[in-house]
Amino acid sequence: MVNTIVLGLALRLHGAKLWWRDDDATRDTPALRQLLDLSATTKIPLLLAVIPKLMDDSLVTLVRQYPLVRVVQHGVIHHNNAPQGHKKQELVADFDSTLLIKEKQRLKDAFGAQFRPILVPPWNRIDDELVKQLPDLGFNAWSAYAHQETDFPLARRDCAADPICWGINDSRPFRGSYRTTATIIRALLQGWKHIGILTHHQDMDEQTWSYIRCLLRNLNQYYVDPDQVFHILKR
What we know:
Layout: H1 4-14, E1 17-25, H2 30-42, E2 46-50, H3 57-63, E3 69-73, H4 97-111, E4 115-119, H5 128-133, E5 141-142, E6 149-150, E7 155-157, E8 159-161, H6 177-189, E9 194-199, H7 206-218, H8 226-230
Helix pairs in contact: 1-6
């Protein structure tokens, strides 16, 4: 399915590392258990983006059993506030930033030392003015998809590869081994040093799971802790 030997050589040649983020966690489900078990068995740390307003106690109880999970904030309630005809976006220009602070505290209280002050905007979109406010809101970093790595105005580390093909008749089919691997190679050629692999545990079919298992198990030595990627200092 994946030529991990070639991909591993490419990672070594470019001096790059992989890291792993999963979005949309809200509660204990079989899919989430499968994901967390995969993290535990491969010993690869996972950045888990939790929707604070939608999470329940079952999620907290489950995640606390997996010390390699780093919990981050996935917006507030994952609600689309964009005008009609625009791409979906929760964190728009007039979004009440105090809600981000409130929900960040909710996550910190729930997950304790597993929480990281990193923001993952729903749909990977956030207004530029809100980004400028993030340091004052208590965030050390943020993460979106397929744009850039930067440290201004604070650390931004995006994911570069998503194995799901979105927006096709509301289905969530596997993008395909060749196309997904090609996005990783493209990121290497563009000079990325931290290549994030993005998953959505609730939306993955068996082909997608198989691809992710292959990447994690066969390229284990190239994965790094998200804490190293984001240079996190806990708050």
